[in-house]
Amino acid sequence: MPLKRVKFQEKKLEIPPELQTIIDSVVDGFTITDLEGNILYVNAALVRMYGFESKEEIIGQSSLNFIAPRDRDRATRNIQKTLADGQMRSVEYFSVRKDRSEFPIELSVGVIKDSRGNPIGFAGITKDISQRKETENKLIQTLKEVEESQAKLNAVFNSNQISILIFNKQGVIQQFNRPAEEYTRKLLGKELKVGEIWYNFLPPRFRENARERILKVLHGQSVRFDYAITDREGINYWFDVSYQPIMVEGEIIGISLIALDITARKEYEESLEESQRQLLFLTKNLQTIQERERSRIAMDIHDDLGQKLSLLQIEIDLMLPKIARMSKQYAQQLESLSNRVKGVIEDIKRIAYELHPEIQNRDDLTNLLKWKAWEIQKSTGLNIELKWRNCEKEISPEVATALYRITCEALTNVIRHASASMARVELTCDARTVRLTVEDNGIGIAPEKIHHPDSYGIMGMFARAQALKGQVKITGKPGKGTIVQVSIPLTKEERESL
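RE: above sequence
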């Protein structure tokens, strides 16, 4: 809407220069209007406030043109009230600048009267309250956030599982929540009271430890620990307890005690540990049974089938001279058959040896790994590098057997899946642990394959190591290969102590 301009014929306002200078020095806007609201005079501050270049652009316009449309009816009513009762009013409106942008103002209007007391116009002072409104809005938002935080704090403070106590540096209780009160009554048979010493609520055997922990807190440290207590009915409860310093401007003024009921979690952990112990026991038994079965099959193959083939080979060799005298051609065929039987006998020996190798110590393990590497290189062309470092400590048969089986499985995976030309097997030891590394230069195992249910060989590697309280870590880098790292405690005592 275009700004309305009013022509003045007889409405002339004379203000002495000295007074104009004073009015122009005021930081707030100053306006004089006639009784109809037409602007007769403005100061320099109001010109700047509304984005005009000169006073002449404003003088002659209706003052309502500078009030936002939504507030004009209210402004008209307030002017009429001011004229009726003669009292100055200060009211907040949204005002309109030259560029039609809106901003909040506080407008104070009073009636101007002539020498006979008759009203002849209005004087108004305009304050730009944009910053004040922004500050108020921020304050309102802050108060809202504080209320929300307070609500959250109250929810946490009265949580059913979190007990909170606040006490001063002398241990005098200042505040506590409902769970703290209920747990103290249930577990200790006492009623918490503000103003009492916290130590007095603890069983005598716990008080000294509590004092030591609080001394640490008073030196600026946080203390956290798991705490078990049995109630009067013999039921065990576990708590995650923490003491924290309460600080104001860098000074410790008190201590907070927060105790979270973790009984259910502890029961679950104990159940899980028991399940893991049973699973570990089952795994070890299965592996023992498996090795025994391998041994039995190896003996059956070697002693039964191997002996029968050996007798057959001897009979063939005994027949050769007789056949040679009868037919040279048949003799050659029989000799070829004898050689084939010898080859089968060697294969049986190799299969029996792989089923149940005699691994009693470190030397047996290293010799067996050398033999396995030679066998693989001969049959597949895969180049295998063997390396031993600091392996002077003795290795028990069960650990040596597990390392051999894991190495065989890792090399089998290299042959089947890695498309590698080279593999490295390294065995190292320190005072307590033996470590095995099998690395190849193949395509690299995908992460999702490591723990995939169908990766039976890898699952077997993990199971063998875990049965001896060891660990297996498998990492693959695309195009750069796979690394299998195994660590197992050297002695039975060390494995059982973990």
